[in-house]
Batch of 4 targets.
Target 1
Amino acid sequence: MKYFIDNLIEKIEEKNSRICVGLDPHLNLMPASVLDSALLKNPQENQKEIAEAILYFNKEIIEATAEHTAVVKPQMAFYEKLGTAGMETLWKTINYAWQKGLLVLLDGKRNDIGSTAKAYAEAYLHVDSGADSLTINPYLGRDGITPFLEDKTKGAFALLKTSNPSSADIQDLKLNNGKKVYEAVALFLAKIAEDYLGKTGYSNLAAVVGATYPKELAEIRALIPSIFFLIPGYGAQGGGAKDVKAAFDKQGRGAVINSSRGINFAYRKEEYKDLAPQNFGKAAALAAKKMKNDINSVLDL
Amino acid sequence: MKYFIDNLIEKIEEKNSRICVGLDPHLNLMPASVLDSALLKNPQENQKEIAEAILYFNKEIIEATAEHTAVVKPQMAFYEKLGTAGMETLWKTINYAWQKGLLVLLDGKRNDIGSTAKAYAEAYLHVDSGADSLTINPYLGRDGITPFLEDKTKGAFALLKTSNPSSADIQDLKLNNGKKVYEAVALFLAKIAEDYLGKTGYSNLAAVVGATYPKELAEIRALIPSIFFLIPGYGAQGGGAKDVKAAFDKQGRGAVINSSRGINFAYRKEEYKDLAPQNFGKAAALAAKKMKNDINSVLDL
């Protein structure tokens, strides 16, 4: 049995790519060739048609970027918004990513305790049919984390220091030992993570740390060397390759950097304007390749 | 337009009941007359039949307890576990609760930021078809909370001090100002809540505080008087009516106390053993009535 984290690291090295392609189907950014904007006048009534358009879009993005990434990350909210039709598109997207040899990190930020957390794990990390990993929220403590780690072939990414402007509200509160809440959360996760270490020395319990706070990212990496990171906030949110360098060890291991809009909707960027909107897949491939190389260029490989 | 919180308080007073009936369909606790246990040998293959059994069970529980409660709280994980069939049962359950004049608090503990949090709000608090309120997780800060409050007819219940044994791991960390994280979270929520106050003086931004920590519950109530509480942990988890008294103001307002298993599966209790298992609805009604009276008995009404 191969640990989730070892499998992820192996795929990253096969592809020589440390990026993660987010699949966040923002409806108002879709090419007209994929989604007829008339459907959006009454999205509740057109959920099925919209969900089908998203599936088509996702398959094109996956097909186009599979060469440049080990993992894709569907953001669940965008699928849940479309009801059962959206969830069907989510599962078909997951299946398509697997067909293309990719791992799937489901971004659902689920959290609950005991039997309820276990029910979420059964829903999204089921041994036969679930995704490979899921984002979770650690606020409930240990009870809310270990139920997601029972199957060693699956992983969980706990929010640690998030990329958004208001992440400081709770995560940066100062503790009486001179540390901040996110540092205490880091040490708390690292303690649990010890019980789920793969052969690579990284744990199936991973963490989410934003590229938008490079100083904190470097501090957290030094504090918890066996925790693998998912790093959002590159590109659209302002983080660059130099900002995330500290997340990687000397072997170039330790993190994947996510980009969603910057790849999905690359066709809208000035630099790809020579491509027609229906060639959004080609633009996504070029953006993914560029990002892959950008990250690799700052590593001492 | 009536604020969610005013609507909730009005319904509570109509029913003179401060309980919330959780709808947590634990499959292994279901009566044999509702769910054929043979289906559970391969639940992934029998999702549709299991989801239909749950819908029947929920309707019976709602029908039986509607007289004794203002609000029901489906725990999303149990429905999500059953895929799209489970989600259809969830929405049909919500609709049935509305038909019976009840409010619905969806327990999904969702959390994300900006446009993604907005997508969750559209999924579960949609003006025409969504639930009345949703539980959320505050770890991401303000960005992760306000998107759930845009529609004043809807409410959000943020986790504050949860009822589980390991809630102390993060929530009780000591801050450099002598307070604990949950106290800082309480003040943080109260600040946001000011912008969403109804005529009753309570806010559409409510909080989840466990009955299992009565000392903390009383402290938090004193700290943030305009925040309404959802209080889990009564009964099965060990909290009693005296433990939750401090949550209520002099008018008997300020909280609903949740019970899930203690009502749903009351038919399994020693005290209702004279009722046959297929009379689980009757047992649930008796347990709900008893709990309602138990809570009211400690209030100075």
Target 2
Amino acid sequence: MVEVAALARNEDGIGTVLGILKQQFGERCQTGEAIRQQHGHTTTWIENQPPDGVVFATSTQEVSDVVRVCADHKVPIIAYGTGTSLEGHVNAPAGGICIDLMQMDQVLEVNAADLDCRVQPGVTREALNTYLRDQGLFFPIDPGANASIGGMTATRASGTNAVRYGTMKDNVLSLEAVMADGTVIRTASRARKSSAGYDLTRLLVGSEGTLAMITEITLRLQGIPEAISAARCSFPTVEAASRAVMATIQYGLPVARIELLDAMVVQALNGYSKLDLPETPLLLLEFHGSDAGVAEQAETFGMLAEEEGGTGFAATASLEERNKLWQARHDAYWAMLALRPGCDAVATDVCVPISRLADAVTACDEMAREMDLIAPVVGHAGDGNFHASLLIDKADQDEQARAAEFISWLNDLAISMDGTCTGEHGIGQGKRPYLVKELGQGTVDVMGAIKKALDPDNILNPGKILPG
Amino acid sequence: MVEVAALARNEDGIGTVLGILKQQFGERCQTGEAIRQQHGHTTTWIENQPPDGVVFATSTQEVSDVVRVCADHKVPIIAYGTGTSLEGHVNAPAGGICIDLMQMDQVLEVNAADLDCRVQPGVTREALNTYLRDQGLFFPIDPGANASIGGMTATRASGTNAVRYGTMKDNVLSLEAVMADGTVIRTASRARKSSAGYDLTRLLVGSEGTLAMITEITLRLQGIPEAISAARCSFPTVEAASRAVMATIQYGLPVARIELLDAMVVQALNGYSKLDLPETPLLLLEFHGSDAGVAEQAETFGMLAEEEGGTGFAATASLEERNKLWQARHDAYWAMLALRPGCDAVATDVCVPISRLADAVTACDEMAREMDLIAPVVGHAGDGNFHASLLIDKADQDEQARAAEFISWLNDLAISMDGTCTGEHGIGQGKRPYLVKELGQGTVDVMGAIKKALDPDNILNPGKILPG
């Protein structure tokens, strides 16, 4: 468990605000211990810092009302979706109000002809894709968890498809948002491109609820490809697999997914998902395109992989086999946990320039061994992004200390390679020290000036991204 | 000629600053009339508002020095590249110092393995592509003019390739920038994706020199495709051509370029470029991919075009024929001017959701006729972006008034279709009134708060994007 400093609480303000909100929202304003704890829950080892109350909002107007009340009394307000973020994003270090947006779960419009749609923040990515399927459309961003679109927007999520389709920053056209004073704004039109003033859309994407509350998201969609095929290929070493990824990207092959699993993860999957894969590093791929196109992509990849010592290359267009492969990839987290029953898993999330991927993954593997840590690696390798998940004995203080040291070392390694300490999980509470290391104090000061300008009383998700 | 309000001048400050800069920069600080006028030049009918002096900077340190001197004395400072912007971006309504960045023209590094490079702002896109060619790489953004990468970044430029490769916002990985107090920051690492704090890269892309001076740009590059083919197809009406574009995008065909030219432009090109095209609306296309891939794309497009009444469809992989087609497209501006010798051409730049493209272009055509204006249309149609260029008799006051009315009508039309008044030219001085119409006062107020936070004395390119 990592302790996080609590911030000064505005007790009087919180009491007043809770009184007002209970009046307005009745049963939709909850203060019970269990609900509060659940809304401060994070999926990591960061300690729980619950809010003082949880409001279940059903409209933009209600979000604006809650923000206005909180603004009047200088009380913190924190947005909540599915609670699947990993760096303490939903914690309430100064207490305050959590606003649960999961009842705002409507797909408001789908413009199939324009390949876009407008949704409320509580729509999950799976719900959206189920909704879209009949129209031959899909939304490609896939962070693993069935996260809410609002949360994915707020944390600039990405995942397995980002190598082809980009991250949330590339797939949000426009936002409706409630600013710190309760004003509702819209950041952009529905045009596919625009040069109309500052890019407020991109400023809010990834701002982790610290600059505004996102109440509607207009997303770019994709047509479901004519053909999809999947492939897997084994490699003698993580380095060889990484080199195959580098060759694929440098070749310009438009892979839709190219995921790296190290030998330990493959071993875990064989046990957990009843597979029979060679227990060496593995790449899983997906190709999207026309029938001829995906066949050509698979063939080209097979050639590139062979040059790096790849073996057992097998491509398949069968839906059943494809689903089996990708289900295994999605099971990786649970499979890894099963490697060490009862352990805590702590995810890291570095991303380096692709030319450094083999070096970074290899160094990561060696350092984990040296520090006597269990740290299986999966990666969205086509972006240079990988996660070493530390499997830690909760009772072993020394191991926890070594894990903390390892995480710090890995973040520094990525930064030294001109990479980032967070490819897709965000800064939250956990990575604030690294933000300055990565970008410098001057850059973080500019972020602080923007925060101060848009939220002068620091009521929007305080203690995240920036100090204080 | 459109007059633009002058802003209050800080005469004492300007005098002091010029004294200091002449001391430091000698011959590289110029105050002659011709040089000043040239640096306030815009390629539109907006009047010239020259700066008081022009400094030719050669390094980030020098840019920082100039900004510090201007900050100390609250004197405006305006960045200048090739001067090809269209909305008065380089005008100096309050006087001050223009900083010419064209001597900062070095490609600082190319990381071929990572498909990225780092350049100074004065590198032009053609110079960059010449530099990259031997390594099998190219930078896809093509705004027509041989603009500087710094200017393209500052105005969020795009152009013919944006339908496939995105705009500057999608192709800038990181920036070095000098803030209003002279501090030098870097906005991001070289990782292909990151969720490390606020997206300052995207905030500065398109900020038109009003938030910072951009001194280095890290760009994503593309591998030169294995195969490129071009195609053309004629249509009976602009509406039919637009419908073919809509069908192509909705199909998900990954066209690299899909440009619309109306009958008047085709007629102009036949005269200017000695071509023999049917004088009806025309689509010009380019396909990038493998040999088999481009052939398949061309075939699919041919099928879609035929359904919309397309005729004379011809695809070619011949470099010579391709160059001839695209040279004609690039000559369109000059060809249009030749339609009415001695005229002024004033470009509009609306962008609408693709489903509204046919309606918008048709309405534009009809309104121009109704208002007795000559307004040939070319468009980056795959993005829903098109330019009606008004060919105006400089001596005819009434025609100028009608043109102004037409521009206003067209911007309002795009906004009413949930589109934008500026797909790629920016707001500058010319489009400030429409920014509020498009996004609302609340949104523009948020932009104003950011401007105030990062440039409290309003010295960075005052009078652009925002009021004042």
Target 3
Amino acid sequence: MRMAELSRESGVPVATIKYYQREGLLPPGELTSPNQARYGAAHVRRLKLVRALLEIGGLSIAAVGEVLAAIDEPATSTHDILGLAQHGLPAATQEVTDEERAWAMGRIEAMAGRRGWEVHAGSPVVESLAGVLCALRQVGHEWVLDELDTYAAAADTVAEADVTAVAKLGATEAVVEGAVVGTVLGDALLAALRRMAHAQVSRRQFSV
Amino acid sequence: MRMAELSRESGVPVATIKYYQREGLLPPGELTSPNQARYGAAHVRRLKLVRALLEIGGLSIAAVGEVLAAIDEPATSTHDILGLAQHGLPAATQEVTDEERAWAMGRIEAMAGRRGWEVHAGSPVVESLAGVLCALRQVGHEWVLDELDTYAAAADTVAEADVTAVAKLGATEAVVEGAVVGTVLGDALLAALRRMAHAQVSRRQFSV
């Protein structure tokens, strides 16, 4: 298909598609003449993925580029694939002092100990978690951490279902894309469901 | 304290503090002379909250403004307070066709029926959830929805703990701020824990 049809199929305006191409988020089409290119179903699919990561995942253009690089990287074991997909994902960072970081790591290690989780200090995910704990303390809402074990148990249940489902996708490329999409859009899914649940619990507990 | 000390106490550069003031994210100090103002502990606290919402919550400047407006709004019942805090929060939106929306609402209503949840079609939270479902279908990763009930059960467990903890904060202002901070930073906490859990589950299932 030509560019105009790619735009219709994907619902993305032509100018936006060209912008994504300049940013390296979409591979070039197959040139059929010096200034005309042909696109396929893979381009439509990739465009929809870019839109979902930007609009639902809330990622920046640069972060989408990193995620797509993770998807396109060849890898070996399923564990490595999942790790690679995860390390390609942007993590929240927060400036913290040594004292704050030590306090956060203490809380994380205690929680991980109770759940039988391994903690790799320095890994982006652990640093990101430590940043969230420090932010909660900095804004004076440490009480949220009284729920840390409840949150971790919920995360564990969801992660078990995620990994099992992703591993069933089969082909390496599908597993990587599934891991990335499932992680980013899964966050959005969980956040929306949590807000919906807040309304239900609040109605039950406080409504007259 | 003067502006320089406010900057030291909060860890936010003076130029950034002035930018936040222009954007209405920080109330003015008490004028002690035509071009000098005095700031208090409430300013330090508010600055740390703005930083956390921007950096950990990943909100835009405009969205932080809406959240702060929700925090400063006077309200009545705890249920109303929580609703207000939630409606002040930005929700992901996704362009969907009528057919897609109907399909998503069908999935949401079936899930809600199984959990005994009320669904208010048109509420920002339900629309946001419908958007996530449509995005998953658009990118060809509908399989994530096979986990919808697992996600909803996890969200329910966390929401129950959230609402119970927030209600204990007592004063109206504290409950509103707690609800907002708990919702935004709670999303970040859950996302980080879910990624940490992914690594544990993957190691257990696939590592050699």
Target 4
Amino acid sequence: MEKLSSVTIKPLEKSIYLKPYTMHFTQNGTKRTWDLLRVHDSVAILIFNVTRNKLVFVKQFRPAVYFGSIPEQESQGDIDVQKYPAEIGATIELCAGIVDKALPLEDIACEEVFEECGYHVKPSMLEKISSYRSGVGSQGSLQTAYYCEVTDDMRVSSGGGVDDEIIEVIEMSVDEMKEYISGHNIKSPPSFMFGMYWFLHNKCKK
Amino acid sequence: MEKLSSVTIKPLEKSIYLKPYTMHFTQNGTKRTWDLLRVHDSVAILIFNVTRNKLVFVKQFRPAVYFGSIPEQESQGDIDVQKYPAEIGATIELCAGIVDKALPLEDIACEEVFEECGYHVKPSMLEKISSYRSGVGSQGSLQTAYYCEVTDDMRVSSGGGVDDEIIEVIEMSVDEMKEYISGHNIKSPPSFMFGMYWFLHNKCKK
């Protein structure tokens, strides 16, 4: 697992990633306000390696999950990493990425599959699962999910992300995945859970 | 649908709902920062009315989805509600609510089922589906999902939410739900999609 140190949490000053706004509006005659965020739309890819019948996921340290796992009264200033080790922030997710360039979503999805998991796939190999709205409470960005079958031959690098991304590629058999999602406290987002049950329902029919 | 008017979007000034922070940390020797939010944990309840074999959902205007559906360059200042009508922000979701009081999660879930959908249910009637991490990019809060079967007898009010909540209770047959989730651009969050495929996989076995 990650080596984590020198963790300090301070109120946000200025951010290029997180842009908070307040929306003022009148709904059915009543004046309301709502605080919200502008975040990028995203793509997610459910990868199934048919050479070895393994689902391919990414494991990574998520600062927001780490932060969200620390009680609010202890989550400002310096954090005790002995008490709150990096593991509490490690998630297992679908391969995914933000839409931050003017390319077709399928091209961005293929880039993410390559960068994060090391497989060379083409847009025509992607099956669209659906688009839905993430974070309806505060952000409402669009995420588009795809399904993609790969073979060992398509793996051209070990993946792991670009720049300062630190991503571990994780494989699970269908049985291992079933056991993982049957847990009661899962370090994965709902889009992952959606993907797993979609897979069981649509790709694993007896 | 909602009557929406006087929509203005301004940079966030001070919020009791949305608390942005920056986390500074050292991961495997590299100094990093991450912008994130403190948001409440939440509960979500998948309700199935067994008297009439209908799934029970909530439909509501979500300012964040409305905002996220407007191109960034047009989403500051006054918004043209002719061009961007309220419908673009209307979502269909599981009954849900934030954990903002010191009660067992099951009690909060029962309160939400009553307030939003009008059914009187007891904690012992809830089947835990799982807990998972919402919004792993910026918030990482914990959502706990339950399944609950209800009958018409348990419906003691029309629901619709409390305070200034404007919530419409929506029912779908299993076939209607299947058609809804087979769409390619769904105004629902991934937790809803997870719930639907969980239901199809676990409660609709042939």
